[in-house]
Amino acid sequence: MEGLAGKVSCILFFLLFTQTVSSLKKPLKQNEPCKRLALYYHDIMFNGTNVANATAATVANETRLGDFKFGKLVVFDDPMTKDAQLSTPVARAQGFYFYDMKTDYNAWFAYTLIFNSSDYKGTLNIMGADMMMEETRDLSVVGGTGDFFMARGIVTFRTDAVAGAAYFRVQMDIKLYECY
């Protein structure tokens, strides 16, 4: 009889535990972000002479397979601003992207937005494919810290300006759907 009582106790504990955990989770409202930010990402490529201003550098050159920079790897520490001007940064984007398609311009990004301003403190981790020829592209917010603890959501990229290989600016619409 003691064995049966022990099994019943274990089952009751498990049911109580799962009910408690499921009640702590906030419901997702897929059409309404719990937090939304609009920022501009400024990428200034190192060209061999602009050491003081460069925020990104090629660390592996393309492979010469096709015309789309296939295999090129870039590491960056780019400023994020509230407007399209290269004004005072509200965050930094630190990470890398590499060109991963031989037949079109496409890059894969993995980076962290690091906030340390009066508005926000903490990080957002973002990753995904940037299909550059599309007008808008969505990447995933896969986590965060501080004011963005355990955040999940979508970042919509829209290319805002391009100056050859030297500079590009992307407007980022950050929509968080899980906020704690």
From TrEMBL:
The keyword Secreted is assigned to this record: yes
Signal peptide: 1-23
Source organism, top-level taxon: Eukaryota
Any one GO CC term of the record: apoplast
Pfam families referenced in this protein's UniProt entry, alphabetically: Dirigent
Compartments (UniProt record): Secreted, Extracellular space, Apoplast
GO BP, one annotated term: phenylpropanoid biosynthetic process
Keywords: Apoplast, Secreted, Signal
Subunit structure: Homodimer.
Family affiliation: Belongs to the plant dirigent protein family.
Described function: Dirigent proteins impart stereoselectivity on the phenoxy radical-coupling reaction, yielding optically active lignans from two molecules of coniferyl alcohol in the biosynthesis of lignans, flavonolignans, and alkaloids and thus plays a central role in plant secondary metabolism.
Protein name as catalogued: Dirigent protein
Organism listed in the record: Tetracentron sinense
